[in-house]
Design brief:
alpha+beta; Heat Shock Protein 90; single chain; Beta-Lactamase; 16% strand; five-stranded antiparallel β-sheet; 3 domains; 12 strands
Length: 482
């Protein structure tokens, strides 16, 4: 089922049905046991009552009158029609027997074979004769007969209680058909079960309504999401909010916030690209027109040279914009690994040395060969960091100047230092160097170099500081936690 409400209702009703069935079966067993006890007590009480009546002695005439009154109950239908009888009378019986087994008194329609069956069960087989031999057959089994017995007679089972009255050697046998008890148990359980059966639809309806009320906040949240403007990235507000929906609401709001940030990054990138590329593209267009309209070869060569420089600057701007976009929060996946900065710097500086040589500058590396410079970092990001720091130093250092890269190891951190012998940066302007598109002087950059460096340092939970270099230029210190 694709409905939480329907699935919950089905599970609840299934559990309720199984539980009710088990409880009903247990109630049936308990009711059967208690009714058996009650009916057994009534049988024993009836036998005691007959014993009390016969204990004082009954004259023959009185006994015959009593038997005649009992025989009138044989026509149970007529008595029931008169309101003086009950159909269950034929299912209840008693017999008073002497020590030879002769009937002294019995109820109407008492089964004559009941004693034979009982005797067969307790050890004496054979049909009962009308005139028995004086061998006291009942007394011979006296130790087995008293008490309760279950006797199968025909298609019915009888519950029998046998009592021995020793002073007159009388035996009192009281019994009832088992279907009387079964019918009573069935009626009690059926009435209870019918109540549960007819009440189950009502319970299902109430559970359906209760589940609906319980799921109302979820339905309200679904309606709120369904009717929202597709362009809306505002957080979901649903109050009061159930505890179970808080994780879902928080996850949705976090997703909306991430989407909002992603769109914001895209908008900023587009705005930055449009802002920074507008001027270089316009300059390239002018240089291209100058080259086309140049009157001689020298002017055309000069225009083409300026066009080449413009293309180079535009390429640098695009590369830095793409790098900055890649280093936006949550847009970069850092592949952290163990990096030996000493080996790493030698490899990177070897590739950057031609930049310094092209401007007649000296690029140096200073470190302690015995120190441990291992750090857990993202090597590609560190390469971008070093390229931006060195290229900025090269750009702002005059011809014949020096650029020095140093490593300094501590227990918890490693410091990377880049210093140049350029003109330096006034302290009041140093913080602006980390702003996007801020350029000092007439360099060819886009003003993104130190912004990129700062983002990489933040991604490594490090720190970047600017200070005056001993050589008169700018000193950049980067702290990288191990």
């Amino acid at each position: 089922m694709d409905s939480i409400r329907g699935r919950t209702l089905l599970l609840v009703l299934l559990l309720l049905t199984v539980t009710t069935s088990l409880l009903t079966y247990k109630s049936y067993l308990d009711a059967q046991h208690e009714i058996e006890e009650l009916f057994d007590a009534r049988l024993a009480q009836s036998a005691r009552l007959l014993e009390g009546m016969l204990l004082g002695g009954v004259p023959e005439a009185t006994r015959q009158m009593m038997q005649q009154a009992l025989d009138q109950a044989a026509d149970g239908a007529a008595l029931e029609a008169q309101g003086a009888g009950h159909p269950y009378e034929s299912k209840l019986s008693f017999q008073v027997l002497d020590q030879a087994g002769a009937v002294q008194l019995e109820s109407a329609q008492a089964p004559q074979q009941l004693l034979d069956k009982l005797l067969s069960q307790v050890g004496r087989a054979g049909p009962r004769e009308t005139a028995r031999r004086p061998e006291q057959p009942l007394l011979a089994l006296a130790e087995h007969l008293p008490g309760f017995h279950d006797v199968a007679l025909g298609e019915y089972r009888w519950r029998v209680f046998m009592l021995h009255e020793s002073s007159k050697n009388l035996w009192i046998l009281v019994g009832e058909r088992d279907d009387v008890r079964g019918e009573l148990v069935a009626k009690i359980v059926l009435r209870s079960l019918m109540t549960e059966i007819f009440g189950l639809p009502l319970i299902a309806f109430l559970v359906w309504m209760a589940v609906g009320v319980g799921l109302r906040p979820l339905r309200q949240m679904a309606e709120l999401i369904r009717h929202r403007d597709p362009d809306s990235l505002e957080p979901l507000t649903l109050a009061p909010l159930p505890r179970e929906l808080e994780p879902m609401n928080a996850a949705l709001n976090r997703l909306l916030l991430q989407v909002n940030h992603l769109l914001g990054r895209e908008k900023r990138f587009i705005a930055d690209a449009a802002h920074e590329l507008r001027t270089p593209l316009a300059v390239l267009r002018i240089h291209a027109q100058n080259a086309l309209q140049a009157p001689d070869a020298d002017d055309r060569a000069a225009a083409l040279q300026q066009l080449e420089l413009g293309v180079e600057r535009a390429t640098r701007v695009v590369a830095q914009l793409l790098t900055m976009a890649r280093l936006e929060p949550k847009a970069v996946q850092m592949a952290m690994a163990d990096v030996d900065l000493a080996v790493f710097l030698r490899s990177e500086l070897a590739e950057l040395t031609p930049l310094a040589l092209d401007r007649q500058q000296e690029l140096m590396l200073e470190l302690d060969e015995s120190a441990n410079y291992h750090v857990r970092a993202d090597a590609p990001s560190l390469g971008i960091l070093l390229q931006n720091l060195v290229s900025n130093a090269v750009q702002h250092t005059p011809a014949g100047g020096q650029i020095q890269v140093s490593l300094w190891a501590e227990t918890e951190n490693i410091w990377l230092l880049v210093e140049d012998s350029g003109g330096g940066v006034p302290e009041a302007q140093r913080e602006k160097l980390f702003e996007r598109f801020y350029r000092q002087g007439s360099g060819q950059g886009a003003g993104l170099g130190l912004s990129i460096v700062q983002r990489i340092v933040e991604l490594h939970a490090g720190e970047i500081l600017l200070a005056d270099a001993p050589t008169g230029g700018l000193l950049v210190r980067v702290r990288l936690p191990r």
